[in-house]
Design a protein that fits this description.
Elements (H helix, E strand, L loop, with lengths): L3 E2 L2 H21 L5 E7 L3 H16 L3 E7 L5 H13 L5 E4 L9 H7 L11 H8 L8 H12 L8 E5 L6 H9 L7 E5 L6 H5 L4 E4 L17 E4 L3 E5 L2 E5 L4 H4 L5 E2 L6 H18 L4
Parallel strand pairs: 1-11, 2-3, 2-4, 5-6, 5-7, 7-8, 8-11
Antiparallel strand pairs: 9-10
């Protein structure tokens, strides 16, 4: 069996193309979608991620400002900034790049963002709307995964989706999205570190989502022939004397067995940024409704 590669680069280009008319419409009404990105400290991975997001916003003619804060900033000072950004009409979305320093309560900070500016989709109000099937902002990575499936005409209706990982950022929201009648209508099994006999469940998957944060954990022994695999992992490892990025799936092992696969890199990653743009545009559109 030939394994099709589900390119996030290709899918993201289609998404950006579809946004052009929406962005023009907003600008014709005097609204330029704007994102405030907050970066605390100097985490190298976060630096690269925020830089890539900023470049994409600028390339699309959107507004983006980076608020770079020292590692030792107090929680009170950070919350004060969030309050100011909430009331700033230039910004339709607020992104606080994770992880935050240990002395800051991440949940408290994320919950302080106005739900209508929470373009990451992490606020309890947005998580609740998603859980009842009436989403406002869907977390960017799961939303991007659903777009990839749609772009490559992979339908979930009647399929068995098995998700490995239950984080509020990826695993839990993708399990909800896949099960919603209007979006996926799939049967979903959510597995995690406490799941006994994980292979029993993963081998039943028509679509397998690997979002456990463990490099190359899933190999051929975890899958059945013809499965579609969405690899969410971004892990840096040392291999053959070199540093490289790998996913949660041993991709060489599953080639020829899986029907399709998102690569790492250039798979789910580009879609996360694309959906951040889409959510910011959506937030701006709420002003017209």
């Amino acid at each position: 069996m030939e394994t099709s590669i589900l390119s996030g680069i290709e899918a993201s280009k289609a998404l950006y193309s579809s946004l052009e008319g929406r962005i023009t419409h907003l600008k014709n009404h005097g609204i330029t979608p704007g994102l405030a990105a907050v970066l605390v400290g100097n985490n190298p991975a976060s630096e690269i991620y925020v830089k890539n997001k900023t470049k994409k916003f600028e390339a699309l003619g959107l507004k983006t400002d980076l608020f770079r804060l020292n590692e030792d900033i107090s929680e009170k000072e950070l919350l004060s900034l969030i309050e100011k950004l909430n009331s700033n009409v230039k910004f339709h979305g607020i992104l606080v790049q994770l992880p935050l320093p240990k002395h800051i309560d991440s949940e408290k900070v994320l919950n302080a963002i106005l739900p209508t500016k929470d373009v990451d989709g992490f606020h309890p109000e947005n998580a609740g709307l998603l859980s009842i099937g009436k989403p406002r902002f869907i977390p960017c990575t799961p939303k991007g995964m659903m777009f990839i499936l749609k772009h490559f005409n992979i339908h979930l209706n009647g399929k068995h989706v098995v998700v490995i990982g239950r984080s509020n950022i990826v695993g839990r929201p993708i399990s909800i999205l896949a099960s919603l009648k209007e979006l996926g209508n799939a049967t979903v099994t959510l597995c995690h570190s406490g799941t006994k006999d994980l292979k029993y469940f993963s081998k039943q998957a028509d679509v397998l989502v690997a979002a456990l944060g463990s490099p190359e954990f899933v190999d051929a022994s975890y899958i059945k022939e013809g499965v579609c695999i969405l690899d969410v992992g971004i892990n840096r490892i040392e291999k053959d004397g070199m540093s490289k990025i790998v996913g949660d799936v041993n991709q060489e092992s599953v080639l020829g067995i899986a029907s399709s696969l998102t690569p790492v890199p250039k798979g789910v990653g580009p879609m996360t940024i694309a959906m951040l743009v889409e959510n910011t545009v959506l937030s701006a559109e709420l002003l017209l409704n």
